[in-house]
Specification:
Strand content: 15-25%
Order of helices and strands: EHEHEEHEHHHEHEHHHEEHHEHHEE
Number of helices: 14
CATH superfamily of the largest domain: P-loop containing nucleotide triphosphate hydrolases
Radius of gyration: 23 Å
CATH class of the largest domain: Alpha Beta
CATH architecture of the largest domain: 3-Layer(aba) Sandwich
Number of strands: 12
Largest sheet: 6 strands, mixed
Structural class: alpha/beta
Distance between the termini: 25 Å
Strand order of the largest sheet: 2-4-1-5-6-7
């Protein structure tokens, strides 16, 4: 994530998968659809819906209210030379620092929009993309190992890269390779795409959501231990263009359930092991994205490096306890506000005030 806690998600997929339609539906953007391989990436930042921020803002009436943010990067597939590819050098540079990848998989039929491979086969596309990600990482690793060996360099970097290369040669993505904390550090700078968490987003036709999946995509996701989100990008985009007060009723009538953006973000947070902590006050009420099991001193660094450097203690109250008490003063009277040190592990929904001195 960025130093401000912003989660970055790369949206990838083969041409004519409805990828940019999904990007527009999730982000509320209006990116041009159908400019296959002839455009730059679409980028959008959205707010993560959080009712806790809204309710706390009603109490504190701050000058500013800020939810956590997610940046979507919609990368154009490469169709140059008639070759079906998802990632080229420009896409690689954009995706290197992404926290996760989302593969938009075409699972809808449309005779007017032919699949580049001639037929709709979600499992085939999933396997093809995995192989492309693995091959891209293999090329980077092989070149790096060759250079290190020419320089007669030995050590942890060479060893872990050779392990990664062997793993890919065995037909597996790097996300399934167990690495030690030090090995994670050694490979982090390479931004290997097959190492990143991957979510499958099945883009289905109208009327297919929630019904038996003849494409085999859901079975494939279970088999590969991948998160799968199902939606109809075209329908979600149409619903998103309705007035906000009409959307949920329309979704209920169509049996679409939870709003697609909220559902997607919940799935992404779970996949990445993320949560949110809160800060409150007159200037701002804000949610901050944080990885689970993060210590208080490291959470302070998400806000500002000076707070982390000068950390003294953290005053903590859980959101539910605060709301039950009705105010910070009453929460303190009832013993819900605790003083915690650097090693306290922040929990989802903690309201935190950091005390520091620099």
């Amino acid at each position: 994530m960025g130093i401000d806690g912003t989660m970055k998600i790369g949206i990838i997929g083969f041409a004519r998968s409805g990828k940019t339609t999904v990007f527009n539906a999730l982000s509320g953007a209006h990116a041009a659809v159908g400019a296959f391989g002839s455009r730059d990436a679409n980028v959008a930042v959205i707010k993560v819906p959080d009712t806790r921020v809204d309710r706390l803002a009603e109490i504190y009436k701050p000058r500013k209210k800020s939810c956590a943010e997610v940046q979507f990067i919609d990368v154009a597939p490469n169709e140059s030379g008639g070759e079906q590819k998802v990632i080229d050098s420009s896409a690689l540079a954009l995706l290197k620092n992404a926290d996760a990848l989302v593969h938009v998989v075409r699972a809808f039929e449309n005779e007017e929009v032919m699949h580049p491979s001639g037929s709709v086969d979600p499992v085939r596309d999933c396997k093809a993309l995995e192989q492309e990600l693995q091959l891209g990482d293999f090329i980077i690793i092989d070149k790096r190992v060759e250079r290190l060996e020419k320089e007669h360099r030995k050590g942890l970097e060479v060893d872990v890269l050779k392990r990664c290369r062997d793993h890919i040669e065995a037909g597996a993505s790097l996300r399934t390779l167990d690495l030690s904390p030090q090995e994670e550090v050694d490979v982090a700078g390479f931004g290997f795409l097959s190492r990143k968490p991957l979510m499958l987003l099945g883009n289905y036709g109208e009327g297919s959501i929630g019904k038996p999946d003849p494409s085999g995509l859901s079975s494939y996701a279970r088999q590969e231990n991948l998160t799968l989100v199902e939606l109809c990008g075209k329908m979600e985009l149409e619903v998103g263009e309705l007035p906000e007060e009409e959307r949920q009723a329309f979704r209920d009538d169509l049996g679409l359930g939870e709003e697609s953006r909220t559902h997607f973000l919940h799935a992404a947070y779970n996949m990445l092991g993320l949560m949110s902590f809160l800060t409150v006050g007159d200037p701002e009420v804000r949610a901050w994205t944080l990885r689970k099991n993060t210590r208080a001193v490291d959470a302070a660094g998400v806000i500002h490096s000076d707070i982390q450097r000068g950390f003294i203690r953290a005053e903590i109250v859980n959101y539910d306890d605060f709301m039950a008490a009705g105010s910070m003063a009453k929460a303190k009277e009832q013993g819900h506000v605790r003083l915690e040190g650097k090693d306290y592990v922040i929990r989802d929904g903690d309201i935190v005030l950091f005390r520091f001195n620099v």
